[in-house]
Amino acid sequence: MSPTFDDLLRRARALPRDGRRALLGIAGSPGSGKTTLAARLVDALNGDGPPWAAHVPMDGFHLADVELDRLGRRDRKGAPDTFDAAGYAALLRRLREETGEVVYAPAFERVLEQPVAGAIPVPPAARLVVTEGNYLLVREGAWGRVRPCLDEVWFCESDEEERVRRLIARHEEFGKDHAAAVAWVRGTDQRNADLVAATRDRADLVWAPAVPPAPRPPTA
């Protein structure tokens, strides 16, 4: 039986111990709702007092398109080798160890489809960092450095039809026509989803809500 959102909140609140910062990872296939879950958790945790939780997505470590072109990988953007996995692991180590100063993380700008450096400040007051992405439980290559940096990793699982629908809508929202969006989701995205699904059993917890989480309202 999947835990409730309140169960997740209680578990997240218990992660920081002995005055140290904790790092919680949320993994899942493209379109599974992991970003929405992470944002909901952080919003709820910060809603009852001074902010003490921060959200740092993995997507800021996408390689820039110019580098993907150089490597010949742009036609499968989003695959494991189109990210700076070693850089992501290094940031997680900094977040765990450098708790007395602001640590800046990159973000991913969906409109530009490009990473943006130094966009997310994580202040010393952040006792919990929630990070989410596809490949947190992958063991191959530099991705294997990620899991040891995290206190727990939860796996976000959604109805497959709903996951695909959301992905197609996302690609259309950011510029692809319907045929191109469907082709990308059925091709590149599905290969990545299959790889991520194979890591499910390595998670500390699986969250598979019967009803997809409501999206966050757009920010101004």
Task: Describe the 3D structure.
The strands form two sheets. A five-stranded parallel beta sheet has the order 2-5-1-6-7. Strands 3-4 form a two-stranded antiparallel sheet. Helices cover 34% and strands 19% of the residues. It has helices at residues 5-13, 34-45, 65-71, 85-97, 160-173, 178-197; strands at residues 22-27, 53-57, 103-109, 114-122, 128-133, 152-156, 205-207. 35% of the residues are buried. It has one domain (5-204): Rossmann fold, CATH 3.40.50.300. By secondary structure, it is α/β, with parallel strands linked by helices. Mean pLDDT is 90; it is low at 211-220.
Give the topology.
Elements (H helix, E strand, L loop, with lengths): L4 H9 L8 E6 L6 H12 L7 E5 L7 H7 L13 H13 L5 E7 L4 E9 L5 E6 L18 E5 L3 H14 L4 H20 L7 E3 L13
Q: Structural class of the secondary structure composition?
A: alpha/beta
Radius of gyration: 17 Å
Fraction of residues in H or I helices? 25-40%
DSSP strand tally: 7
**Spatial order of the strands in the main sheet?**
2-5-1-6-7
Number of helices: 6
Would you identify the regions where 5 or more consecutive residues have pLDDT less than 50? 211-220
CATH superfamily: P-loop containing nucleotide triphosphate hydrolases
Strand content: 15-25%
Mean pLDDT value = 90
Q: Sum up the overall morphology in one term.
A: globular
Number of domains: 1
CATH architecture grouping: 3-Layer(aba) Sandwich
Let me know the largest β-sheet: 5 strands, parallel
CATH class: Alpha Beta
Report how far the terminal alpha carbons are from each other. 37 Å
**CATH topology (level 3) name:** Rossmann fold
Q: How do the SSEs run, as a string of H and E?
A: HEHEHHEEEEHHE
